Amino acid sequence: MKIKYFAWMRQKAGVAEEDVTPPDDVRTVQDLIDWLARRSPRHAEAFSEAKVFGAAIDQQVVKLDAPVAGAREVAFFPPFTGG
Amino acid sequence: MAVRLQREDFDVGAETEALVRGNPRIGAIVSFVGLVRDLHVREGYHRDAVKAMTLEHWPGVTEKALADIEAEAHRRWLLDASLIVHRYGRLEPGERIVLVLAASPHRDAAFDACRFLIDWLKTKAPFWKLEETPAGDAWVAAHAADDAAARKWEKD
User: DSSP 3-state assignment of B96?
Assistant: First the structure.
């Protein structure tokens, strides 16, 4: 599974993308966040509970309780600020 | 109907001309042009001088989001033509960021659709702004006012 990070989440995590193989008990996006946050202090900072961010599975925005089974790519990003 | 994502600047006059050419049904064009400001007010009081801003996007996904937003405008209003041009990369104060054009036979649809397009684009298309300030680089946070502006267009 490919993980992508955007904007300050990328800066905090220290990587733009990475390939990971989460264990079977990682069922939802929230499970994945909890698992990724344990990879390094930088990951923990990127996923700090005080921060607001969104997620997308295979380029579709999802809620954090969405299942990740079969996902090829999961992206994490701060709220959009275009225009 | 068209959306473009580009690093380079755009010419508002030329884009407008191109949009209406060969379409004599158009009676009204409303345009919105967003510019980089040299001042950013954070949390209501703290002011940072902005030297430049870098716009990050999600290649492929941002274009699709813009096209979806434009298609939604065409579902809601009878538009003859529309255009969204959004820049990315490093931009300095005074530079153009975004152009929205909406054209219709009468002005009401063009006004409403243009406002809808920019309001939705701000909160529903993946862009992130990094500002260069004297205190260092700072990511622009989402604005509650932008969320409220987008919500006005939510259907019940």
Answer: strand
Check whether domain A2-77 has CATH 3.40.50.410, yes or no: no
State whether residue A54 is helix, strand or coil. Answer: strand
Tokens representing B86 are 């959004």
Q: Report yes or no: B82 and B31 within 8 Å, Cβ to Cβ.
A: no
Q: How far is A3 from B147, CA to CA, in rounded Å?
A: 27
Q: Is A77 on the interface with B (CB under 8 A)?
A: yes
Spell out the domain ranges in chain A. 2-77
Candidates A6, A76, A80, partner chain B, best to mutate (most B CBs within 10 A): A80
If we measure between CA atoms, which residue out of B153, B60, B140, B12 comes closest to residue A60? B60
Number of structural domains in chain B: 1
* Interface contact B125-A82, CB threshold 8 A: yes
- CATH number, domain of B72, equals 3.90.1170.40
DSSP annotation of A56 reads: E
Give the pLDDT score at A21: 97
- Give the pLDDT of residue B43: 61
Distance of CA B103 to the CA centre of its chain: 16
Asked whether this complex has an ipTM greater than 0.90, the answer is: yes
Give mean pLDDT, residues B58-77. Answer: 97
**Is residue B156 assigned to a domain?**
no
> In Å, what is the CA distance from A62 to each residue of B22, B57, B132?
42, 18, 31
